[in-house]
Design brief:
The structure is a single chain. With 198 residues, the protein is an alpha+beta fold. It is 44% helix and 22% strand. The protein has five helices and five strands. It has helices at residues 2-20, 91-101, 105-127, 139-169, 191-194; strands at 40-41, 55-58, 61-74, 80-89, 173-185. The longest helix is centred in the C-terminal third of the chain and has 31 residues, at 139-169. It is elongated and about 55 Å long.
Length: 198
């Protein structure tokens, strides 16, 4: 009798366990992917990533990415940097200027932008400390420090020429270094390094 009672209790426990132990499936949360990359503001360092932000907010206006420009400069024979720059402009300003002055004016604008951006880059690199820092934890931290420094120096160097350009042309514009694209040279910098890659 004891044996059959134990067997009966054991069967009941197995049955109860089988009923109560259902597989629990984790809840799946679907996060929608944004249709376009979020806008950056005019003083934030763009985060790493392969695609540049398509818009930028400057003085409460949304500017659209209109051009990517390559640039580079050497500080001396050993040090320098190269990378891409993002040119943002107000679409309404572009349309108004096209109506008023024609499309050919933008070739002149492009040349002016390239000239003052190149000068600002050279000033930024000259102001940056590109020496190796023995206290960084590795190549990623070194790259991050150099990038932040160059970004800040470029933004400071480009402020006045950008304002003069905007005052002259009435085109609301901004230029941002695309920080993930930057390559720094610490052991040899010459013109061949700075040429855009295909």
């Amino acid at each position: 009798m004891k044996r059959s009672l134990q067997l009966l209790i054991c069967c009941a426990l197995i049955t109860l366990t089988a009923c109560s132990s259902q597989e629990i499936k984790p809840e799946v949360t679907v996060t929608p992917v944004p249709a376009k990359t979020p806008a950056i503001t005019n003083n934030t360092v763009p985060s790493s990533g392969q695609n540049p932000p398509m818009t930028l907010v400057k003085n409460n206006k949304t500017l659209n990415l209109v051009r990517v420009m390559d640039g580079g400069a050497c500080k001396n024979e050993a040090q320098g940097a190269k990378g891409a720059f993002l040119i943002y402009a107000d679409s309404a300003d572009i349309e108004r200027i096209k109506r008023e002055k024609g499309t050919k004016i933008f070739e002149e604008f492009e040349s002016k932008i390239q000239n003052f951006a190149t000068t600002a880059l050279q000033e930024a690199i000259n102001a940056s400390n590109l020496n190796e820092n023995p206290f960084t934890l590795g190549a990623d931290e070194t790259q991050e420090q150099l990038t932040k420094q160059l970004f800040t120096n470029f933004r400071e160097s480009v402020v006045n020429p950008l304002k003069q350009f905007q005052d002259t042309t009435t085109l609301n514009l901004d230029i941002m270094p695309f920080t993930p694209s930057f390559i720094f040279y610490q052991h040899g910098c010459d013109a061949t390094h700075l040429e855009p890659e295909n």
